[in-house]
Amino acid sequence: MRVVMAGGGTGGHIYPAVAIADKIMRRQPDSEIIFIGARRGMEKDIIPSRGYELRLLDITGFDRKKLYRNAGAVIGLLRACREIRGILREFKPDAVIGTGGYVSGPVIREAGKAGIRTYIHEQNAVPGVANRMAERYTEKVFVAFEEAKSGFKDMSKTVVTGNPVRREFTACGIARYRERLGIKPHEFALLVFGGSLGARALNDALISASSALYAESDLRLFFVSGSRYYDDVVDALVSRGVLDGDRFRVMEYTDEMHVYMAAADLVISRAGALTVSEITACGRASVLIPSPNVAGNHQFFNAKAVADRGGALLIEEKDLNSARLLDTVLRLKNNKRLLNEMSAASEKFGRLDAADVIYDIIAKKIT
To answer: Looking at residue 8, what is its pLDDT?
Structure first.
């Protein structure tokens, strides 16, 4: 199988593409896969580290608020389309799969016009602009959330698959990871994170509540602050006398999120599509605080999809403060029945077979 993967900009678009590619290679080891991405996206670092060939385009997104700034973007898009056509003629793919981001749309469009089988995957509960525009060129539209189906014109094309997540999240060893992190059986493990850069509102609320949380002698906190706020968070917790490196541990970043997530009793985080899928793949109860600064307010709808099914509590950022955060954590910590019900609902919502479903549909068409 010869496949082009297109998508990028952020990890939310890149990691599902990698998970799909990895699944193809495990099922058909003689497959050839290349990625097409943007020079300014995170894919330039992530994709080569995973062992895949990456073709980079000089392409940027459009400024939808200040249209006069888009002249350069239009010129770049036209140039990129010529490069895409050249790549497709050279590589001769059996299928092209787009996972969103501004590079995905042009690749899907050019592949569809060339008569190549094309597919897209939408990670969020509210479809992004690139995927909505690319729909007309696709054979199938894979969506992570049932709610996303109504965002496409031809719902008969849509297949609910969930989000492909890395293998680490589909084989979570709770007891082993808790032992590895030194979490005692009676302790309540709380994981808090706001993405790779961090989330100021979440960090501030947690810092303000930290002394009261530290007073809970059986509570362990693993706090991934994000690179932007790490020094400030450390200084604030040190000044409150709660940062001991044992019960309260702060990290700028971790590439072992699956370890902390599987070991946690409760996760507090933003509601990016991939984060939500990883939490539910591990079957963790969560408190989701959507970022209000994203297109289409899609994080709110991601969080709502899980909360409506009982797997999470949703707190909008405008309603977040230290008292609300503290009350929510302690209420769940002291109500094991509710926590277990949320965990069960989260696990039921989570999909572990997304990449398999996507592979099976595509392979059936081209083999």
So the answer is: 82
